[in-house]
């Protein structure tokens, strides 16, 4: 059972799966670092942001995999942050800890609830704006969790729904190995020493210093364009 389904089942007091797996409330999938699946986040509309951890490629860290704002029929007047901390295999890591901070305070929270509940919950109060990250490893952080959002009536007409100061969020973290970062370097390159092109090119050609090469704006002269097998030395 996914953490989100576990939360919905616990909130409803049901003994079976009370909700289906999948995006809720128009969840937005945010692309992250190369090589990782997207984050499921429907809380961007509530000014919630995700800050990625600064972590060395290949190192283990806590990655945010989901931030979910509870719908009115799910929340029923609560004002909480619900937390999950998962292993790479998706199993809760019991006794893992999170740090919740706000202006003027902070609190460590231990994920020690029964398996039928979210790992931990933290009540938010009026005007409190919270951030959360996991402890023990480098961790992504979630910012802007708060309850002072407008009323959202329960579409079924029953229950308290979401009202001012009564909004809740589920935040899921998972231990992940940071992938290698890849990408294209744009901008200007400054050559600070003479460059000699290998004899396999139409040359060799010697460039004197200093010179600027701008990507796509100042291509190399034909005589100095290296084929894929060519090498250059500084």
Describe the protein's architecture and organization:
This protein is mainly beta. The protein contains two helices and 16 strands. The protein has helices at residues 3-12, 72-75; strands at residues 28-30, 39-41, 49-51, 60-69, 80-86, 97-102, 105-110, 120-123, 130-134, 141-145, 169-177, 188-191, 195-197, 206-207, 211-214, 232-233. It has a six-stranded mixed sheet, covered by helices on one side. Strands 3-10-9-6-7 form a five-stranded antiparallel sheet, with no helix packed on it. A hairpin with an 8-residue loop joins strand 1 (28-30) and strand 2. The longest helix is centred in the first third of the chain and has 10 residues, at 3-12.
- How many whole angstroms does the radius of gyration measure? 25 Å
Structural class: mainly beta
Query: Which stretches are poorly predicted, pLDDT < 50 over at least 5 residues?
Result: 15-26, 197-234
Number of strands: 16
Main sheet makeup? 6 strands, mixed
Q: Helical percent range?
A: under 10%
Number of helices: 2
User: Widest sheet: strand order?
Assistant: 1-2-4-11-5-8
Instruction: Give the mean pLDDT.
Output: 78
Span between N and C termini? 57 Å
- Proportion in β-strands: 25-35%
Shape: globular
Order of helices and strands: HEEEEHEEEEEEEEEEEE
């Amino acid at each position: 059972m996914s953490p989100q389904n576990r939360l919905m089942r616990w909130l409803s007091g049901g003994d079976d799966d009370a909700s289906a797996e999948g995006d809720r409330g128009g969840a937005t999938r945010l692309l992250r670092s190369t090589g990782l699946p997207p984050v499921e986040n429907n809380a961007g509309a509530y000014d919630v942001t995700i800050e990625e951890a600064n972590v060395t490629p290949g190192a283990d860290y806590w990655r945010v995999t989901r931030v979910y704002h509870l719908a009115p029929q799910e929340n029923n007047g609560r004002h909480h942050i619900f937390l999950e901390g998962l292993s790479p295999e998706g199993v809760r890591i019991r006794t893992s800890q999170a740090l919740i901070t706000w202006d003027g305070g902070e609190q460590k929270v231990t994920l020690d609830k029964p398996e039928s509940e979210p790992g931990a919950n933290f009540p938010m109060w009026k005007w409190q704006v919270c951030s959360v990250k996991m402890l023990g490893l480098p961790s992504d952080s979630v910012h802007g969790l708060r309850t002072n959002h407008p009323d959202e009536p329960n579409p079924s007409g029953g229950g308290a729904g979401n009202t001012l100061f009564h909004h809740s969020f589920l935040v899921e973290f998972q231990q992940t190995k940071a992938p290698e970062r890849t990408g294209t370097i744009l901008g200007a390159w400054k050559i600070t020493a003479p460059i000699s092109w290998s004899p396999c090119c139409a040359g060799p050609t010697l460039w004197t210093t200093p010179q600027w090469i701008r990507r796509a704006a100042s291509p190399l002269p034909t005589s100095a364009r290296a084929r894929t097998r060519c090498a250059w030395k500084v």
